[in-house]
Specification:
Elements: H1 5-11, H2 18-29, H3 35-46, H4 51-63, E1 68-70, E2 78-80, E3 88-92, E4 98-101, E5 127-130, H5 133-138
Parallel strand pairs: 3-5
Antiparallel strand pairs: 1-2, 3-4
């Protein structure tokens, strides 16, 4: 059973505020959201809230391990509530759609470099790039010669 936002905040030792609950609820409804889209969702729920307040809540929730921040190259940071399960992401080069994909090995880190250079590795973050099914249909199943940037 997925804990409520309130329960997750309490379990993480964080104060339960309407802003924090609204941010976690927004991410539960729309994973892989940008901070700006979270701010829009939270603003629609709570009325006026500053983007900075949303950024602050996201940062605190990332620090507490309630939210994961992913940063696919060339895209704005994305946030999700699926944490601690060693999953990776598929990202569409055309539209930016991001989809979770479970790790093939199931253990962390699922990939190791040929030389760890003395590092004690605990995680590998993997992003698969390609075209989502919708963009494949739009492109006639061929890889586009010019891929528009996701903004």
């Amino acid at each position: 059973m997925v804990p409520t936002a309130e329960a997750a905040l309490r379990e993480a030792g964080m104060r339960v505020t309407k802003q924090r609950v609204a941010v976690l609820d927004a991410l539960a409804e729309r994973p892989h959201a940008t901070a700006d889209s979270v701010a829009q969702q939270v603003g629609a729920r709570l009325g006026r809230i500053s983007k900075q307040a949303v950024y602050d809540v996201l940062g605190a929730c990332v620090d507490a391990g309630l939210v994961r921040q992913i940063e696919p190259a060339g895209l704005p940071a994305l946030f999700e509530t699926r944490t601690g399960d060693n999953h990776h992401h598929l990202v569409c080069r055309a539209c930016g759609r991001t989809t979770d994909v479970d790790c093939a090995t199931g253990t962390q880190p699922c990939l190791t470099p040929s030389d760890a250079a003395g590092y004690a590795l605990d995680e590998a973050e993997l992003v698969f790039w390609g075209l989502c099914p919708t963009c494949q249909r739009k492109q006639g199943s061929s890889f586009p010669s010019e891929i528009r940037s996701f903004v």
